[in-house]
Each structure stands twice: as structure tokens, then as C-alpha cells.
Amino acid sequence: MEILIRETPEAGCRLAAKIIAKVVHEKPAAVLGLATGRTPLQLYRELIRLHREEGLSFKDVTTFNLDEYVGLPPTHDQSYRFFMQENLFRHIDIDPARTHVPNGTAADLQSECRAYEERIASAGGIDLQLLGLGRNGHIGFNEPTGSLRSRTWIKILSEQTLRDNSAVFGSFDTMPHHAITMGVGTILEARHLLLLAFGPAKVRAAMEMIEGPLAAICPASALQLHPRATIVLDEAAAAGLQSAEHYRWIDRHKLDWQRYE
Asked: CATH no. for residue 186?
């Protein structure tokens, strides 16, 4: 794991945007895996700025989102398709036909999951997968004790996840209790993983992901198995790491070609 600690979430998002921009500059037809939620919002704003002010083009990029709520149409203001359209896609030069989000209203959800895997494979696999980190250690909607080799499937959301996300739906009861999500096994097949975690609420999950044992109780710990996983934390999320100074030392002493900034 590559652990990068920055002072604030804003600094972490600027760094993450540079990592993504580097991938797109080096491979204009890159396949990006994208995430939703509060954590990547500032990152998407920075990518929009890089597009508008520095000419970063997404015209040949293909994207696959991690997940979507079951039962929400793309026009619903809490669907992840709507989120991506409003917070990134409509502000950049990406071809809408190249943007993929699971269909949470498919008549046959199981077939939709299998087809999503096939679409990823047909695109050549994911070059860089963006991830957030749930307070209980989930990635995508892969909740604790789920298989660390799982594929894209329909998942039951944990009570913790529902309580963390329900405010935007108005209440716990009105939030969807199921989602289609890329599985942990699917995520691990991406060539580069980029996970963002900010704030004191993520301290325990970050500790277990980075320094805890590989265990299904913390799905994000599976990133320990990946040959290229970059973890970007702010100081608040990194507060519980026993080896934080070691990670800072490694970051300061990288060779020029290993740096993003």
C-alpha cells in the first residue's frame, strides 16, 4: 500500500485529482472506475477545474461506477447516475455513451450484474478505480463479512450504512435497503486502486484497512493484497495509525518519477 497523508480533505482531493489526471494524460482512452458520496465531491470539482482551465480531456475516457441503489431510476435525485451527471459528467467533455452505472431498476437484477461484469471486461478492464471508505470498513457496498472474492451483485445494506446515508433521503425508512455493487473481487482486478478517507469518523476503518489483519469483517483490508493501492488520508483520518511517521518518511523520500506532486 502507498499511504499518502495530507493536512486537509481539500489537499487530499487535489492530490487525488493529479493522480487521475496523470492516468488520463498517459492513456487518453483510460477506463476509470468512479465512486459517489460526500468524499469525492471536492475531487470532482478539481477534475472539472483541470478540464476547464488546463485542458484535461475526457473525450475518449470510459467510466464504470461502483454501485447504484436498487429501485431508484436514473432521474431520481438520490440515484448515483443523477449524482454523477450533476457533479461531473455534464461539466466535462466525456461521451455519455462511455459512462456506465449499474441499472438499479432492471427487470432482472441478477442478469444486470452479470452484464455489468461483461461490460467492464469488454472495455479492457479498469485502469484506475476510485474508492471511498465506509465507517464499518466497506468499499462500494461490500459490507462486513461479505466475500473478499465477490463479483458484482445485489447487496443488503448494513444498518450502519443506512444510518450514515439516510439523512439525504429524509429518513431511515425511506432509504433503499439494497444496492448493486461491484464485488471486492471485481474491484481488486483494477490495475490501480485509489481510496480516499477523510475525517475522524474514518479513523478506525483506516486503521483496520491499513494496519489490521486481512479479514472479511473489514472489506477494505483486501486492498492489502493489491499490487498498486494508493490510500489518501487527511490528518484526522490518519490519527490512529501506529506507523504514520513511517508513511510520511516514505512519501518524503520518493524518487521524482514516483511523485504525483
From this structure: 3.40.50.1360
Give residue 12's Cα distance to chain centre: 14
Q: Which residues contact 206 (CB under 8 A, 6 or more apart)?
A: 133, 197, 231, 233, 237, 238, 240, 241
CA distance 102 to 79: 10
Q: 3-state class of 22 per DSSP?
A: helix
Structural domain tally of the chain?
1
Average pLDDT score, the chain? 97
- Catalytic choice (68, 143, 208, 234): 143
Rounded to the nearest angstrom, the gap between the alpha carbon of residue 120 and the centroid of all alpha carbons in its chain is 16
| Unique residue bearing C-alpha cell 470532482 | 44
Among candidate residues 67, 68, 112, 127, the one labeled active-site is 67
Catalytic residue among 51, 100, 138, 192: 138
Instruction: Decide: pTM greater than 0.90.
Output: yes
Which residue among 51, 103, 127, 136 is the active-site one? 136
Q: Does the active-site annotation cover 138? A: yes
Domain residues for 227?
2-258
Phi/psi-derived region of residue 12, left when phi > 0, alpha when psi is between -120 and 50, beta in every other case: alpha
Does 143 participate in catalysis according to the annotation? yes
Q: Residues 215-245: pLDDT tens digits?
A: 999 999 999 999 999 999 999 999 999 999 9
The pLDDT tens digits for 42-83 are: 999 999 999 999 999 999 999 999 999 999 999 999 999 999
